[in-house]
Design a protein that fits this description.
Order of helices and strands: EEHEEEHEEEEHEEHHEEEHEEEE
CATH class of the largest domain: Alpha Beta
Oligomer: single chain
Number of helices: 6
Helix content: 10-25%
CATH architecture of the largest domain: Roll
Length: 262
């Protein structure tokens, strides 16, 4: 029995930019070992697997090496596909049941809005391991669930950052966000995200990282709505709004490939 699999570029309005994710819409739950093998075969930062349940969809995400608790770009890709292929009407909210609880996606003027739990970071004192991973020239450091964050001096410093993947892997989280206030008009902050601890050296555009970045920059800049840019080689724009214990993330997506798993 074959299974359709679709590759979608998230957080972009044009193909071959943003962050690619593979999506499998299934009839029922699948064997986790099979899902991990498919994710390894696709070799993208995440592959999403979903199937319908009463009132929504059950959704899981796998990197090439592990299952993860939250993934923004593959959730965006899943919602985009459900709307694009007519599984769901664009005036209807989509409910996903996940390891991070219930997530909701809505369609608004060509953008998909995701309702995610906030992951606010706490101040982190520099350590030897952090200094090895982030270098010496960082302004501040913080840690949230599953993520370590460092603020650098400038947007240029973020763009020029040279990661030491072994040092990042040795951090307790195995994942590092580098960020800075943007000097580019119309963008509030920039970031990059490295996750060698879960098999992803650099993730092109990371929705879940913005559940940390949104609360962090809310404290820094004194506002709750942002336009963000993740400055990887592919790059992507994310609109972020922080409201209480939720972070609303908006992005666009483009379907680039359809295939069939035999």
């Amino acid at each position: 029995m074959s299974q359709e699999i679709i590759q979608i570029d998230s957080f972009t309005d044009k193909p071959f930019a943003g962050n690619p994710a593979a999506v499998c819409i299934m009839e029922k739950a699948a064997d986790p070992e099979w899902m991990q093998q498919v994710a390894r075969e696709m070799n993208l930062s995440e592959t999403a697997f979903l199937y319908p349940i009463d009132g929504g969809y059950h959704l899981r995400w796998f990197t090439p090496t592990v299952e993860v608790e939250l993934c923004g770009h593959a959730t965006l890709a899943s919602a985009h596909l459900l709307y694009e292929d007519g599984h769901e009407a664009k005036d209807k909210a989509i409910r996903f049941v996940t390891l991070s609880g219930e997530l909701v996606a809505t369609y608004q003027d060509g953008w998909v809005r995701l309702d995610f739990p906030a992951n606010p970071p706490e101040v982190l004192e520099p350590t030897e391991a952090l200094t090895r991973a982030a270098g010496f020239a960082f302004k501040a450091a913080a840690r949230a669930k599953g993520r370590t964050l460092v603020e650098l001096a400038s947007e240029q410093a973020v763009r020029a950052f040279q990661p030491d993947f072994g040092a990042i892997r040795s951090l307790p989280t195995g994942r590092l966000i580098v960020t800075a206030q943007s000097s580019t008009a119309g963008i509030d902050f920039v970031s990059r995200f490295f996750a060698p601890g879960i098999g992803i050296n650099e993730d092109p555009v990371t929705g879940s990282a913005h559940t940390v970045l949104g609360p962090y920059w809310k404290e820094r800049l004194g506002k709750s709505e942002f336009t963000a840019y993740q400055a990887s080689a592919r790059g992507g724009y994310i609109r972020v709004r922080v409201s209480g214990d939720r972070v609303f993330i908006r992005g666009q997506a483009v379907t680039v490939m359809r295939g069939e798993l035999m």
